[in-house]
Design a protein that fits this description.
By secondary structure, the chain is of the alpha+beta class. It has a single domain (4-196), classed as Beta Barrel (OB fold (Dihydrolipoamide Acetyltransferase, E2P)). It has four helices and eight strands. It has helices at 46-64, 80-84, 137-143, 192-196; strands at 4-23, 34-42, 96-97, 109-116, 121-127, 130-133, 149-159, 167-179. Strands 3-4-2-1-7-8-5-6 form an eight-stranded mixed β-sheet, with helices on one face.
């Protein structure tokens, strides 16, 4: 069966952004470096969740076909909402419930890890029909910080190629910032000059890694 692919654009806050350059997943160093984000959708944003879910469901059902032996999810069963907001996302769906995050402070979101080993389109929306392209590392890291609001452009595809894992997969195609958001912990370096005054040497750079309380680091 040919691979089924559909595109969806949805609003989310982004976390763990690796967008200026691809990064190797420390848990799987045999894989290629990836550009990646974690897309977070508030549970209160029912319309966006339904939009994403409908595309996932459409691709999954079209890809798996009528042979229910291939199905890891039965969309017609009661309680499907709980299924697709799974703990690990290993039931054929990548949309997960934030309440299972180790940090314990994400009960109000659902999230997906979206990635691509190839460069993706990055920009900032400047008006109803205009945008500014982001190209330099400095621009990308300044604008697309952890916590900002963005349109996430994502391809959803079903893979059923012999010898590979079947199911729904996500491919990140673009991120366009549409608004500011609350910066997540560690999303930007500390300006020591503001805290301590004059710098005596340039030997030390202080930065941070996001949400050091969590060991859930997606790629």
């Amino acid at each position: 069966m040919a691979r089924v692919t559909k595109r969806v654009i949805f609003k989310a806050s982004i976390s763990y952004p690796h967008l200026s350059e691809p990064v190797v997943n420390p848990n799987d160093k045999n894989k290629d470096p990836q550009y990646s984000i974690e897309a977070r959708i508030p549970k209160s944003d029912v319309d966006t969740i339904k939009k994403v879910r409908s595309v996932l469901e459409e691709v999954y059902t079209e890809g798996a076909g009528p042979d229910k032996k291939k199905w890891k999810v039965d969309f017609r069963e009661p309680g499907f909402f709980d299924t697709y907001l799974s703990k690990q996302g290993k039931d054929g769906f990548p949309l997960r419930d934030g309440k299972y995050k180790p940090s314990g402070d994400c009960d109000d979101i659902v999230f997906m890890s979206v990635k691509n080993k190839y460069p993706i389109a990055l920009g900032v929306k400047t008006g109803p029909t205009t945008y500014r392209k982001l190209e330099s590392k400095e621009e990308i890291e300044k604008e697309l910080y952890a916590g900002c609001i963005a349109d996430v452009i994502m391809d959803v595809y079903y893979n059923d190629k012999p010898g590979t894992e079947s199911g729904c997969f996500l491919s990140l195609k673009g991120v366009v910032k549409t608004g500011e958001g609350q910066r997540l912990a560690g999303s930007s370096p500390v300006d020591l000059g503001e805290l301590y005054g004059t710098e005596e040497n340039n030997d030390v750079t202080y930065g941070g890694s996001e949400d050091s309380s969590s060991d859930d680091v997606p790629f």
